[in-house]
Request: fold
Amino acid sequence: MDIKSIRNFSIIAHIDHGKSTLADRMIEVTGTIEKRKMKDQVLDSMDLERERGITIKMQPVRMEYKLNNENYILNLIDTPGHIDFSYEVSRALKAVEGSILLVDATQGVQAQTLTTLQMARDSGLVIIPVLSKIDSPLARVDEIKMEVSILLNIDPDTVLLVSGKTGEGVNTLLEEIIKKVPCPHVEDHTLLPQNSGRALVFDFKYDNHRGVIVYIRVIDGKFKKGESLLFAVSEEKFISLEVGIFSPQEESRDSIGNGEIGYIVTGIKKPGIASVGDTITFLKNPMPALAGYQNPKPVVWASIYPESQDDFPGLKQALGRLRLSDSSFSYEEENSGSLGRGFRCGFLGMLHLEIITERLNREFNLELIVTMPSITYKVQLRNGTEQIVYSPHLFPDDGNILKVYEPWVNAKIICPSIYISSLMPFLYDHEGLVKETDNFGDNRSSIDLEMPLRELMRNFFDDMKSITSGYSSISYEIGEYKEADVVRLDIIVADEPMAAFCRVVSRRKVEEEAKQQVEKLKDIIPRQQFNFKIQGKALGRIISSESVSAFRKDVLMHGSKMVGGGDVSRKKKLLEKQKKGKKRMQANAKINISHEVFLKMMRGTNN
Reply:
């Protein structure tokens, strides 16, 4: 296949703007999958993606399309839309030459759209603006077309209109991709050594039988089965067991060459060898590594422990396997006096944390204890030393602290103008400093602000959506560290501090937070055979407390008949015996809190 007939592109958009549905119609129109095998979200392979209706992992697919009697290869990489998975988007953009900027005709440009658009521009990609959901009765086509044209400084008539639901406009879009997206750049092969080449690793996954399978974009040269290859950065040698393309399932080929997107089966089963951004080259004629990707920086930390310490090796293996399919989270081993051995893990956001813990539970059948998510604090102690604290339960006591520094974020919120007055008190409550408000299209405004990352994690997204009836969006990037006035809040259950529920909160809100957490846990935690207390402790004292009453078993009843008939002394004896038994249970009380309770506390819900 001539390289001039190849077009590599991605779809970028805000979450729920119809990326996966549009990808479905493209696959259907090009006949990549037979109609009888088509299903919704065909590129979303995980059950979690289907259940939540979101894309979590990027997914490549190769389509073939005929235009003016010429055959073209269209390599699409479908990308996630949620801000937590922007690292997935950044990797996909390095492997393509063009991008479809998809905007929902019912919602307009959102904050995350601006972030991904800037990433595409920085990568030098050709941008094709497209409106989706034009068949919806709520679509505001002319208004949103004008919004997009102002954003991109283009003629509104050049904005394409499509419906992923009906397929309207999809053929026109495919033709526009062929016309506007350039074919891959070709190096001058007279300057290359014979039998040489390079491919950029933009993703990979692990297979129990075939080892690491790397997803590559071939920059120059040709790769075949059975060749001796090399990871340029890790310097690991291997023989290619299979090469192929995505259609969208893996389909083996004799070779993949210049400009193509495909995969190579390496057979490597050792963890830590393959990495995103590495370069694959030939062992005999190795070439220097390509410019790869910056390593993602975790912004949210949480510790994960197995409910049973017998499952620790299984958890370690599971994290290693997940790391092979998601290189953006990190983990390292740690020990806790009350929870035993576990791992401190870094994530790109709260949704990322939730997805990883859910996958560990589903795919590896692990029952887990997940600590309350936290961020990184820099703490100056009174003895002159400085600590970097990742876990709330390791945060020093208030009396030992001189100063605390925490990360802030620079954020942009876009919402209808009528909600601005309702949002301002909410932003103040979350310690937000509004820098600028501006008009953003018809009847919409944008708010630029700074705020602590800690406050962004305090149910900010859900509360903001609730205040604005779902018509707001936010994007953010990590800024600098600033001084913070925060303290450690411990939650104590049956006189035992629960490290998993420990958190760092603002000093001015510590009493309010303690009361909320204690009441929430009381509503969630199952009752026991004995009474126990749930307490919130901070600043060296108990500041909130709730009692959980015991189940009461009627020891006077046996089946349907009363024990002892009307004998009062017999009844008293049985009740006294029950009372002593409950006292013994309370003295040795140890409450096992289930995985579901931890998840509900993390999500901030009682459901």
